[in-house]
């Protein structure tokens, strides 16, 4: 779980959703006056946005969720999007808020939806979000109801257009959170921690905090903060106090000098915390008309927020490149799209961490969020010591885009991993006057929020134009075209340069011959896109130029869509250094040689994969050692000096046995790698990314499976279908094998081995021990059990399963006697019957009016009658008569309190009018009325939720 979510008042909304892919509108079914009149009012949205909408045939889902993974591949769909169609879908979640929440600010945070989203709460459209990659927050404080009432959160997602030319998925594909805060509180993303190193080596720590008042009454507050390291308080910041007017935000500053700080860097990423507390004494203030005073006048409401950050310095120099904490280093980076095999774009936190750890293993120190921000990636990179280029998706200077960019900066600016902001990628206007002006305005918007990091754009041209965007930015990123690095530096010697996107080399894991007909590309680093370079050439251009700050390789992992240089039946890209599962291609070992100093040697060759004795086998020798010795079955083939940036390609006559490489430094053997001709596949072997799962409902695990011979060697030509059986406290999310031409279903519990490997991703869903079993025809099965670790309770918003009857109206005046003939308002009359909701108390107009009659009415819309149906009144006071379409269905003659259950006869059909007449006979407290939401239930042996 993300650090900043593991705090009081934060609830997870990932469970209990209903989903359906449908283009159903939020419009009323009819066009009468009452239909249109009601629709135009607050809370008037219909269809799936309405609480009483029938979603009984919708699919239960948990988040994150990408509905495209469940679809079949379609040759008529877009190749860029992996030959899968998207469309429009709806999500619905019903939940309750307690009475204690009445005085809280209630926020919903969506980390990512694809693509256009419309957020409804209780029938009110409260947010339109047209940026599918950005996280955002919705304040629903004014729109929610409190127990016993039920709230409906409905989300319509339109994914029929494109924001990118790659697989984007569709759905609520990241987490959703509910945040409950005190009336006066620290605003959402309202803390900015800014450490600045002084000339004497000390640090000035400035903390800027926005305090918000969500209600109408002015409040006095005090703001306290302290600096912590590993849970230990180091220093207190000065306490500040002030007055916060109703519905306003006030910004406060607190500063201290830190004499000695542990530095965050890529090898030892030390993270500090600023713990902030905003305190308000509620009892001293008069309550507003919609607020409840605490009976304890000494009670102080407090809002807490812990902000993680690091002490570090960065500098981008036009001559010497990038500097971290005074140390000059190359940015050794990868560009990464966000999808993974089996899961689509709905990638759990643990899987994101798994991917970044695999990049770190190659010696990478930088990660480009291509081409969109992800808040969880920043948290992971903070902890693991990975530098980040945070990238905005949409290039424009309109108000909506500027607001989205400001949101990106608010989310990123406390993360020490973030060192660069990229405001665009490969924009046609990048070299024009229009592009220059837009870039300048975006840069200013960024620096208004955070002036400590350079702003660049990722150019694929136009960077030499003086009226273009290059001169409006702090630095320039060049995509490909490394032969123009020198030309740019000569023309603009004062502008720092980054290789923002490089290589675009092709490779398929396990393939060592090109086969255009079968869409196979060999693994010798000899193929690349027309605009790109091989891995070794791309990195050589960067290493030979000190003024180039570093480079970001395209890409870290294969991703769905964009199957260049092929189209159908290829459905994924060939660019990755790893495949889509994170299984290493031969390119991984190239970067290990380029970027690491730990001795390594690796042979890239299909040794024993169908070669005949004496047939030459093509071998690429990859090493960062000084010399490499090659032997076959102990017989020397050669021993030569090695160049880590230019690996040698040789041909070795095949013979059964071992091909071995030994790397030497200073004449001593320091690394070795052996290729053994594997025998027939004998068994399956499981390897998991962890030894346990956290019992939080969020944790995930990678289950890798390979086929091995009797000696345990991986059989690279094994292609059997593996079945995955998952039981206990985990569920299967998806499967994959890294084959860019595979059309197997992502969510199926089986997958063919591709060059000996396949993968499943599982997610925690309980506390029982997890059992994993894999089988394949003709192979010995394997199994493993993993414990689920109990952790402190993770608060989830629980689904309210009741079907609530909405649309109640009450006749505008009380009657002296029970009406002999039932009446209802004409469709053009929206005044005789007043709209009413039931929130745990009787109607005030009934109080004290003994022997008066009140009339309530609503229109029922029912599903098909599959059994006995009932109207359940959890709390109804007074003498009661219930009518369905003018026919009396129930009567409670005696004055009683509590629940009432009314059977709906089959003859009622699917729609009709329900009328309730109540007489106030309560002589004790003189109250009457419908006091709680009315529930529609079926006779299933269960009592409706109280």
UniProtKB/TrEMBL annotation:
Pfam families with a match to the protein in the record: DUF4982, Glyco_hydro2_C5, Glyco_hydro_2, Glyco_hydro_2_C
Q: Name one GO biological process term.
A: carbohydrate metabolic process
Q: Where is the DUF4982 domain?
A: 614-671
User: Keywords for this entry?
Assistant: Glycosidase, Hydrolase
Q: Which SUPFAM superfamilies match?
A: (Trans)glycosidases (SSF51445), beta-Galactosidase/glucuronidase domain (SSF49303), Galactose-binding domain-like (SSF49785)
Read off the InterPro entries from this record.
Beta-gal/glucu_dom_sf, DUF4982, Galactose-bd-like_sf, GH, GH2_Domain-Containing, Glyco_hydro2_dom5, Glyco_hydro_2_cat, Ig-like_fold
Q: Where does the Glycoside hydrolase family 2 catalytic domain lie?
A: 319-394, 401-474
> Has the keyword Hydrolase been applied to this entry?
yes
Q: Where is the Glycoside hydrolase family domain?
A: 684-784
Indicate the family of this protein: Belongs to the glycosyl hydrolase 2 family.
Put simply, this protein is called: DUF4982 domain-containing protein
Q: Tell me what organism the protein belongs to.
A: Diplocloster agilis
Print the organism lineage: Bacteria, Bacillati, Bacillota, Clostridia, Lachnospirales
